Amino acid sequence: MQVPPQITFKEIDHSDFIEAAITKKIDHLERVHNRITSCNVRVRAPHKRHRKGTHYVIEIDVVTPTGDVHIGREPGNNFEHEDVYVSIRDAFNAAERKLRKMKEEVVGRPEVLVSPLQGKIEMLNTDEGFGHIATTDNRLIYFHRNAVLNGEFADLSVGDTVELSVDQKDADQGPHASMVRLISGQKFVDKPL
Question: How far apart are CA 42 and CA 22, in angstroms?
C-alpha cells in the first residue's frame, strides 16, 4: 500500500483491540487485491440507545488504480451489529467481494480456446452474397459475404472446405458464421473412415 491505512474512531472511544482487528482485515484485503493504494476505515457508533445496544457502523474507502470501493451501510434492524467485531467482519467481507469483482472485471476471466469449426460450402448465392456451410457436427450454418476473410467470397464455390467461427449473438434466425476462411488443399470428410 502506497499510503499507510488510516483508522478513525468517531462517536466512540479509541480501542487498541478494535484497531488491531481492523489492521488484520486490511492485511487480508491486500492479499485479495495487491494493488490497493490507500485504505481509510471509520468506526462509528451513531446510535446511543438506552434500552437497546449500540449499533456500530464501519465505513471503508479503498482506492486502487482501477477504481474505488466504498462500504458504509447503516446497520438497520440487524441486532448482530451491536457487536463491533461482527460489524467489522461484515463490512470487510463486503469490501472483499467488491474488490474481487473489480479484479475479475479488469483482469477478466480467461477465454476458453476452441479450435475453429470446419465444414464445406453446401449452397452459395453469389448474386445476393450469402451461403450455407455444412459443418463437421452436422449443422447447416448461414454466412454472409462480409464474414469471408480477405474478400475471397468470389473465390468460393460449392464443395470448398472452409474454417468458420459460429456466432449466436444478434442472430434472429439462429447461428451464423462470423468468420469464414477458405482452407486450400484439404479434403472435407463428413463420414467416418
Answer: 10
Give the count of beta carbons closer than 10 Å to the beta carbon of residue 104.
Answer: 10
Q: Quick one: three-class SS letters along 43-84?
A: EECCCCCCCCCCCCEEEEEEEECCEEEEECCCCCCCHHHHCH
What digits encode the pLDDT tens for the residues 161-173? Answer: 888 888 766 556 6
Helix (H, G, I), strand (E, B), or coil: what is residue 172? coil
Separation CA 182–CA 164 (nearest Å): 9
Q: Is 173 helix (H, G, I), strand (E, B) or coil?
A: coil
Tell me how crowded residue 121 is: count the other CB atoms within 10 A of its CB: 20
- Could you tell me the residue range of the domain that residue 79 belongs to? 6-107
pTM, entire model: 0.54
Q: Is residue 189 in a domain?
A: no
Task: Name the residue among 117, 112, 114, 132 with its Cα closest to residue 173.
Answer: 132
